[in-house]
Amino acid sequence: MVVIMLGAPGTGKGTVSAILKEKLGIAHVSSGDIFRKYSSEDSDLGREINSYLQKGKLVPDELTIKMIKERLNEKDVQKGVILDGFPRTEAQAQALDNMLSETGKKVDLVVDLDSPKQEILDRIVTRRICPDCKAVFNTKLNKPKVEGICDNCGAKLYQREDDTAEKVETRIEVYKKETAPLEKYYENTGKLFQIEVTEKTGTMAKEAAEKVMTKINA
Ligand code: AMP
Fold first, then answer.
1. What is the pLDDT of residues 51-88, one digit of tens each?
2. Entry pTM
3. Is the bond preceding 87 in cis, omega lying within 30 degrees of 0?
4. What is the model's pLDDT at position 213?
5. What separation in Å is there between the alpha carbon of 218 and the centre of ligand 1?
């Protein structure tokens, strides 16, 4: 099974993916996590990737597609995968279709999360991440039991360098321009499943994941 998570930054893709990973027993591949790992390395490639992340811009398609292709060839994703943050452009979506068809696979479901902009901004600047198990917390809505410490593995939480009010504006603009057109791309295949994640209706990541499970089991 191949599930794609679409949605602007801060809509809950990572949190919903983590819940689905447990429920479906398949791998969770976050392109952002892959790039953050590279960008912390002292190498030309690490520095190149870091320059895009720092600006809130997309890493070029060619490099992104190459890295995801390598990851999708690994053993743990053969049973199924939740793709969190990939594809983000039409060229990436087409490359993914080609990669999957080479092994007789296809995209099964595209979950498209949306949230009001003010909620996105509030969530992003209060977001805290575990560097080890990648769990996502929030200093307001989803506090860890002990301040600054991951509930799951005890590591010290950190704030992403691109989780600032200024950078998130750029990331939202990039999303609208480069990634939002993918809604049409997947709508045409009948795979698109849109969910509004908002405090207004009490539909947060947990409820969104439940909706996805209901859809998959229908
Ligand atoms: P994320 O953790 O998904 O918010 O991604 C963090 C950053 O990694 C983005 O702002 C981009 O710079 C880069 N990135 C992640 N996924 C992609 C992708 N599919 N294509 C290009 N750049 C990406």
1. 999 999 999 999 999 999 999 999 999 999 999 999 99
2. 0.96
3. yes
4. 98
5. 32
Task: Classify each residue of 84-112 as buried b or exposed e, where b means 16 or more C-beta atoms within 10 Å of its C-beta.
Answer: bbbbbbeebbebbbeebeeeebebebbbb
193 lines ligand 1 (CB under 6 A): no
DSSP-derived secondary structure for 152-192 = TT-PBPB--TT-SHHHHHHHHHHIIIIITTHHHHHHTTT-E
Question: Which atom of ligand 1 has the smallest separation from the CA of 36?
Answer: 8
Task: Provide the b/e sequence for 184-214 (b: ≥16 CB within 10 Å).
Answer: ebbeeeebbbebebeeeeebbbeebbeebee
pLDDT at site 205? 94
Give the nearest ligand 1 atom to 68 CA.
Answer: 19
Which residue CA neighbors atom 15 of ligand 1 most closely? 32
Instruction: Give the pair of three-digit tokens for residue 30.
Output: 């976050």
Query: Could you give the CA distance from residue 29 to residue 4 in angstroms, rounded to a whole number?
Result: 10
Whether 127 sits among the annotated catalytic residues: the reply is yes
